[in-house]
Amino acid sequence: MVNLKYFLLAFALITFDIFIYVILFMGLMSHEDTYTASKGEYDSWASMSDFDKTVVIGINIWNIVNVIAFLYIGYLIYKKAKSKKLQLYGNN
Asked: In the predicted model, is pLDDT for residue 84 greater than 70?
C-alpha cells in the first residue's frame, strides 16, 4: 500500500509539473501573436511586453526549481542505495 501511495504522489507531482509548463508556454505564445518587427529582433528582450518578460522569467525560475528537485531526488536515491549496500555487505 505504501508503494501505491508513493506512486500516486509521484504521478501527481509530475502531472502538476507538466501542467505548469503548459501554462507557462501558452503564456509565451502571446509573444508570437503580438510580435512586430519594429520593436526589435524576435525573442529579444526589447521586443517583449511586460507579460512576455514575466513568462520568460517564470519559465527560467521553474527550470531552476526542476533542476534542484532532480538533484534532490538523485541524492535521495543515492543515499538509499548506499544504505542498502551497507546492509548487504557491511562496512567494508
From this structure: yes
